[in-house]
């Protein structure tokens, strides 16, 4: 089954309407699992929460959340409202945004919490409690007005390089096609969600086929963090969640140890080897499996 929509949030809605009980997201280290229906309804309620606090189209919400379920949920909520999700990588980069409405920081001691920008902050722990303990129940919105494909979804770097719904969906469809993805795949996204490769190629490819996104316990919003730590978390997820496809970068792939016994159910994947989003003819090998490379042609 191939799902289509004009936006990332619309893609989730499309799967939820046809296969509501299919698993959309797993975050094993958080012991969290969401069906497509749960992902849709929770992100919808979070959008309602943000709307109540005045967030509207073209506002900018900064975040330094790592690869946790709340990161994806927040991006989907912003997508529903037409709010631009932006990553906080440095003070210099943040000052280039013309209209920052607010920010979500991963912890009280995180990068964002140490800034002096005059914007309201929402703590990651509070957001986690809001999402997982019924705090959003009263904010459900009755209708969903899908944004146009050219609406900006995120700025993962500079505000002069916006990432649109169209770009994300095209990257997702391209990856799903190249990897022959289907609804039975468990897709390990071992790359930051605050990057076009992680969100577009990784997450959106799974959504276009109604597959499952699996997030390893990795932190950081820039690059791959510590490759050895990301590799260890990735291998654990590949084994425990029986992942069939892997999205990773060269640093993580080089640091990945070989599985000790009986191999993995892994059948393919994509490895980012540089700038660009084109699937190349070159491949990389892991555990006897060929991974397609992605970069500039």
TrEMBL record:
<feature type="domain" description="AMP-dependent synthetase/ligase">
    <location>
        <begin position="13"/>
        <end position="88"/>
    </location>
</feature>
<dbReference type="InterPro" id="IPR042099">
    <property type="entry name" value="ANL_N_sf"/>
</dbReference>
<dbReference type="InterPro" id="IPR000873">
    <property type="entry name" value="AMP-dep_synth/lig_dom"/>
</dbReference>
<protein>
    <recommendedName>
        <fullName>AMP-dependent synthetase/ligase domain-containing protein</fullName>
    </recommendedName>
</protein>
<dbReference type="Pfam" id="PF00501">
    <property type="entry name" value="AMP-binding"/>
</dbReference>
